Amino acid sequence: MSSNAQQERRFPDDFLFGTATASYQIEGAWNVDGKGENIWDRMTHTKPHVIKDMSNGDIAANSYYNYKRDVEMMRELGLDAYRFSISWSRILPNPLAPYEVNQAGVDFYNNYINEMLKYNITPMATIYHWDLPQKLQDLGGLLNPLFPEWFEDYARVVFENFGDRVKLWITFNEPIVICYQGYGGNVKAPLLNLTDVGTYYCAKNLLLAHAKGYHAYNNDFKPAQNGECGITIGVTWYGPLTDSEEDHYAAELKRQVEWGIYAEPIFSEQGGFPKEFAEVVAQKSIEQGYKKSRLPELTEEERKFIQGSFDFFGVNHYTASLVSANEHKTVNAVPSMLDDVDVGVYTPDDWLSSATDWLKMAPNSMYNVLTHLKEKYNNPALYITENGWSQVPEAGLIDDDRIVYYRAALNSVLDSLEAGVNLKGYMAWSLMDNYEWMKGYTEPFGLYEVDFKSEAKTRTPRKSAFVYKQIVKTRVIDP
Ligand code: BGP
């Protein structure tokens, strides 16, 4: 490669390299210092069998006490940024009384944030990463029409308390998991399994809540605090299995049902739910005897309120699948996420497998996602807010597959930057091993291994940590 070409393959100096985590997955201290119960506390305590290893996040990596070590690891990696989430029930044990703030919870995040800032690490905070206060779930959670108001009240509390120092805000992490897996299905807390409308009613309320949070920030905090507010959407790449028109259309429908339903209302110029998908649901609903579409309408006012409610698009990207309009049952078929879009979804045998059932290494998927979003939504500012790889715990510190995955993903990121994608940063999932939701501690994603058996929850860098550190430092892959 000529030295010129090498020059082009550099990450820009102001590109933010970081790692990501989430409160329930790392903090522990589940009932300490006034924290209220959340839906993950409730589910793991009352139905431990739904978790692969019957574990929970009661202690996890104990970051509530180990946060200084966490920041030390960020420094060891030379990170520019760190994405973490705030636990709603730690800040507001009584979420219906948003003025009764739990000072101990606020102190914890203040200490964490201040420790990052001491070392020039930019905090990026997710306001809601799945750990809904149980008290709100008891009132219907995201299906209660008051949810957007509850969320706005909570968001205002975090802007007020941390917005002088946190300049990158994410309202929600991965709506599909919240709405499809938690309400429409029984794959994640609160396991409601309201198959016909749960996902869609939740989606509408989530979008309104996001927009309320965004506008509250934009109108009342941004002028003084000067930060940015976006949302993180899980964007799995769905490409066509063949080049046929039918497969292209099937792939588009699959993208719409999985993430377009959240992205389109916010990021598209016209707003509203994705057109083709909305038509499919409307038609099916009528055929099924419903009075009208199971996908609720957005009023004109709601559509306008949601449309454009972003400063950036946070992308969680891990993997891809190939979509076919015709062949619904082949080897490797994964069941369609929502029956409303009945297509075949495949992952070829030769894609490298991780320790996680849904995660395989798909060629160029990062590039496909980023360039697609650029085209579709008029080149919005983007952050990769998660991307990473799991290996079985026995793999220990020598995690060569993870290194292969990160190098490929980051090469794809460089290709995307060259293609003009407005990408501002990349957060690796994850800084350290943590409680991985339904999989407990069976599929570590960490650049740092955590010894969960040890009292101290000792963290040790894996081989991948040294590779990532080198990339962050040199701004090139494999110098
Ligand atoms: C994303 C979540 C993360 C993290 C990651 C790994 O969807 O935002 O919180 O958990 O996936 O996935 P999982 O733990 O479901 O295997």
TrEMBL record:
The UniProt record lists the EC number as 3.2.1.21, 3.2.1.46
Please state which protein family the record places this protein in. Answer: Belongs to the glycosyl hydrolase 1 family. Klotho subfamily.
Q: The organism's lineage?
A: Eukaryota, Metazoa, Ecdysozoa, Arthropoda, Hexapoda
Please tell me which top-level EC class this enzyme sits in: hydrolase
Q: List UniProt keywords, sorted A-Z.
A: Glycosidase, Hydrolase
Highest taxon, organism lineage: Eukaryota
Q: What is this protein called?
A: Cytosolic beta-glucosidase
GO BP annotations listed:
carbohydrate catabolic process
Q: Would I find Iron among this entry's keywords?
A: no
InterPro entries, per the entry: GH, GH_1_N_CS, Glyco_hydro_1
The organism encoding this protein is: Euphydryas editha (Edith's checkerspot)
Q: Name one GO molecular function term.
A: beta-glucosidase activity
